[in-house]
């Protein structure tokens, strides 16, 4: 019978970390320093393009796959490519979410460039693996106020503080104001309860459908060594989890096997997370073209930075928006509730207040640069 999260903690307290090699020493060596280095390296570049790109690689993206590659072309251009090896064919069969992530990258690059007085002009290509070509113009423009939030932006996959409600009047102030994108949200208890149910039911479908769960498991990085070797995907690290790995209580096979402790932990962690949600926000577009998806990414990035600047927390819960057969009922349900006149709901997020969470691992900028065209 699966044990509870409290039982995991009890076992850990009984010596798992000590068995792993010496208590405090083990704990202090579990931070994946190399994988987190790009956060400190952001902005440490003389060239305006690499300065902007060093911030852009910190943008949010699905499953932290970081599906971008870039080249520096001529004296003033950047070409953004989609890395075709980074995809989620089961949960994102049409690459909609991947494209939104690329839109986040472009907007964060644009914002960062303003800190050097640079105006960027983006020409979307959207042909093959080429996403966009961006030209940098040194015009001494003002810094975008959201630039200051970039180092502090996080995706907060935690229960929110239900003792600190979200004021309904605060939601419109978060509007990212991107042309062609409609932003909305709610703190109304009845509507929040309905959205919680949709989000939870959609999460259950993804978790209990073997091939969609396996897609997530395949990009999990278990422990410091895996995280440092591949600083992308879903990182599971730290002394607690690595102690369980050393003790044989957390394995990749068990994560996908119903009835195991590791599998049960998914329910134990995520159900309280959805329950502790005081508000939701969402982003819709009039259609579902690649251009719409790029714009949705820009809007989501600005929303995420805006919530950070406001001292709030944001967590995307877009399972119900995924376009695969098992999700059809929840997809239709959420579009019936939130979409207007044939819109596509591109992003749904939990909104609230929570304690800060750690940075996520990233590939270095050098790892994302390719030869110029």
Automatic annotation (TrEMBL):
PROSITE patterns: TAT (PS51318)
InterPro entries: Nitroreductase-like, TAT_signal
Residue ranges crossing the lipid bilayer per the database entry: none
Gene Ontology terms, MF aspect: oxidoreductase activity
Record SUPFAM superfamilies: FMN-dependent nitroreductase-like (SSF55469)
Name of the featured protein: Twin-arginine translocation pathway signal protein
